[in-house]
Amino acid sequence: MIRIDDPDDPRIAAYRAVRERDVVGRGERFVAEGEVVLRLLLGDSSRHQAESVLIAESRVAGLEPLLGAAGHVPIYVASPAVMDAIVGFHIHRGVLAIGRRAPAEDAAALLARLPPRALVVALVGVSNHDNVGGVFRNAAAFGADAVLLDGASCDPLYRKAIRVSVGASLVTPFARGGSGWELLDALADAGFTTFALSPSGELTLEEARPAARTCVMLGAEGPGLPHALMARATTVRIPMAHGFDSLNVATTSGIALYRLARGA
Amino acid sequence: MIRIDDPDDPRIAAYRAVRERDVVGRGERFVAEGEVVLRLLLGDSSRHQAESVLIAESRVAGLEPLLGAAGHVPIYVASPAVMDAIVGFHIHRGVLAIGRRAPAEDAAALLARLPPRALVVALVGVSNHDNVGGVFRNAAAFGADAVLLDGASCDPLYRKAIRVSVGASLVTPFARGGSGWELLDALADAGFTTFALSPSGELTLEEARPAARTCVMLGAEGPGLPHALMARATTVRIPMAHGFDSLNVATTSGIALYRLARGA
């Protein structure tokens, strides 16, 4: 463990101005926060590498066993005041880490290495960090094999998305980029049946018969999936009460995965 | 419509320091924000009364039909700068309203007036505003008849809870107060079968057979429902992947309501 007393110490430069960097991006690195997320980042199921950890001195004793398993990853320890000065705002939980992304792969490469029976989620235009995080949490809870995101959907390794996912976006494989059309092509090429969720879907979720390889595709709340995209998939609706047919997109993913993981 | 140019105008006193009042409470009044929520507040399905509306001048033209239906409710119009000065922070959507609560009723009184076939949600210790709002949104989407909340759960008419519910907490009847025990007693007295959701539940959600009057009971994320409370109900689990058995409480409500509304 390395004691940090100077907020300008060059060793912890990656932690400076976390919030601003969230907006402009930070290339190959990402920021993880909180004990539960750190445990996943340091664990065997993480697809990404921990580069360093920064914790408040008050958390050291409680995190001892976890930090002992961190191997050669540098652990920086600071007072809460120094930590806040480094980061630029108050870190309630006193636990931060910098991760380094696994090499990116495209949707086709990711789908090619999935098992013959597979369940994946595809997001088109879902730019809200809470929703993307919530979808990953549900994907992990129901054992989905991967998440595909078009280029307009937000980065699952954005700090808030990781936090809302409770770390699931560190463990569930994902590919991000391209258009919804390209995702649909890659899914078809890999033998997936894609169910496009929409309040106007032709089948109810109960009627949808999952295939060996099944994808649940979701659009952003409000606009939903583009009509031209839905015309190329099997559209599926979740029956709702008249006059209030509105579900959050993460909740929708949870209901669809519950049904399709059970039915597969 | 009444033009407001002075942030200290006594007519709009109810809008001052919205954020601080959120914390200390505002008695019989609540704050609603955004066009979708305002539409529900002014609509026939709202259980509560609109007392006044405050909108940015830029929104007047677009909201004309809605505001025309507001009847005798005063509509205050201000510049964005005056509106921000009144409220104390920036209101992105430029639409606020003050509502007056319907008279409170207790769980027993609410349950007594529900139909013979009814589906309700009960929350115990769910103090997170996003989660309570999300539960109400799902309750409305699946046509649940009411939501019961113990006294430790947060007020569904807190501004953020209303917003996250997309206004559902204005239309779905609820009762709040007392302990989880008292809710369970009131449910039993009214002939409800209560399913207590827990990762360690004895039945899977598929196995749970809804009764004519069914209640889904949920605890806070983390602690969950008290064990002694679960001992008095039928406990139900949503099967999840090994190693990541964690769902958000609002998502859990959505999955349970999807299953039980369909199965009832």
UniProtKB/TrEMBL annotation, chains A, B:
GO annotation, biological process: methylation; RNA processing
Biological source species: Hansschlegelia beijingensis
GO MF annotations in UniProt: RNA binding; RNA methyltransferase activity
Key words of the record: Methyltransferase, Transferase
Record InterPro entries: Alpha/beta_knot_MTases (IPR029028), Ribosomal_eL30-like_sf (IPR029064), rRNA_Methyltransferase (IPR051259), SpoU_MeTrfase (IPR001537), tRNA_m1G_MTases_N (IPR029026)
Protein name: tRNA G18 (Ribose-2'-O)-methylase SpoU
Residue intervals of the tRNA/rRNA methyltransferase SpoU type domain: 119-258
Database matches in PANTHER family: RRNA METHYLASE (PTHR43191:SF12), RRNA METHYLTRANSFERASE 3 (PTHR43191)
SUPFAM superfamilies: alpha/beta knot, L30e-like
